[in-house]
User: Fold these one by one.
Assistant:
Number 1:
Amino acid sequence: MGQLLVGDYIFSSIERFQLDCLQLCEQHYPTVHNRGMRENHLGKALSRRIIATLNDKGIPALLEQCQSDEQLPQPIFRIHNNELTIWIIAQRLLSANLARRKAFVQTIIDTCQKMDAQQPNYLVVVADHWFDRSKASKEILGWWLGCLPDNIEPYNKDGVRLLMPEHGIQQQFEALGYPLNGSYKTYHPLKKDGCRTIHKYILLSAFFEFPQQ
């Protein structure tokens, strides 16, 4: 099983996960619309979507939630078989402040350091956030992607005034001596009246392969 194929399966799972998010939001309304999705809901739903994709391709895998003596702010899941391990970190960004971003980055690094170098490892990170009026919130998209989208008008129409932060997530990894090459994406899975995209709610995803390409 090539790394390229596994990467394609994970990307496909993340794309299809948008529909899962929409269903989760409908089931847990108004909680999601007030606070975002609970980490367990977010992490388990994405993990199950990835396992379903792998199973469709004839790849068996087991799912487990990693246990820790520490009280982690977000759950970490592990999908594995004899050939590979996929790690999933789920985070609900109630706040986008600098302390929360720093802790999130550290969790990603800590997870990378737990990987078994004897087999291919993949890391999928997912987080959701409701934009608010704070400067930190307005920076979250630029922090994640390293740039602002070419077309910011849809955000403006929804009352979101995007800003670029001083440092992006890639720069934070580098500053901590742990540069990571990954694919970062953003989604807006929620729709109003079933058709109009709600830009105030954002789903962040990142994908990393190990060994790093």
Number 2:
Amino acid sequence: MKIQIGFLVFLPLRGLAIDTPLPFSFTTQYEVYSVEGDTVADIEKSFEDEKPLFLKVREADGYTGWRYDYWTDDDTCEIKAFSLDITYKLPQLKKSAVSPEITELYREYIKQLYRHEETHCALTVMSVNEMYLAFEKGQKGHCAEQGKKVAEHVEKISGDNERFDTYTNHGEIELAVSPFGEERYHSVCKIPFSGIVSSL
């Protein structure tokens, strides 16, 4: 059963630093919108009413954005500053006290959406980590050559994320095996809260 949804209610933006084995500063932020309703029609309307305009335009229910900054010496590849910030925009469905079975219709969809956005994060972290490692390698010699590799990884971030959306039809299909090799980065991208919460 394919459920078409649109959703949103903004909660305050929260920044969380995540302890990771990554050699650079890495943070995640979460912008969550609430969805609720006692019927499918109510939930669909709640999604549409609350979804921010940019998600409506993209015809998407979730989003993962990234921003990386680095400051290095062009001649020696010395890393003076290096960071990656991930921002998730996600729905959170409130359980219906009147019709809990309606909430269950959306449970797998929301779990799959969260997994999809976590993979976007993991793809980005993977390439940014490779950028960092290229700079480190450049410190041992051939800095200019490593700078070209960094530029390749910059292109790879957008390319991999676009291909992932194409392969999965923006999350509608789950890949049995990822062709990208980002699995080891999923742990640092795990969204630390549930997509479904109890109503007060």
